Amino acid sequence: MIALLHPLLYTSVVTWLMTDLCNRLCRGIFSLSGLKDATAHLPAAGHGGARWIGTLERLIVVAP
Fold it and tell me: Are 62 and 15 in contact (CB under 8 A)?
């Protein structure tokens, strides 16, 4: 049982790093790039779909 704990823990950490942390990092980079200010005059659009697609892409990359 303990032999399975380490791989499960490492997999959980890597999955979190590849999904949530990368989403936050990408949002920070886009915020610093000035893109947010350049498009401030446009109506706000929901970005939930893009966030899901990016997360799924990163999960596919780390899938065996």
Answer: yes
The CA-based dihedral angle spanning residues 56, 11, 30, 43, taken in that order and rounded to the nearest 10 degrees: 40
Q: CB-based contacts of 62: which residues, under 8 Å, 6+ apart?
A: 14, 15, 18
Tens-digit pLDDT profile for residues 17-36: 887 888 888 888 877 887 76
Alpha carbon of residue 54 to chain centroid: 6
Cα separation, 57 vs 64, in Å, equals: 13
Q: Are 59 and 23 in contact (CB under 8 A)?
A: no
Q: How confident is the model at residue 2, as a pLDDT?
A: 72
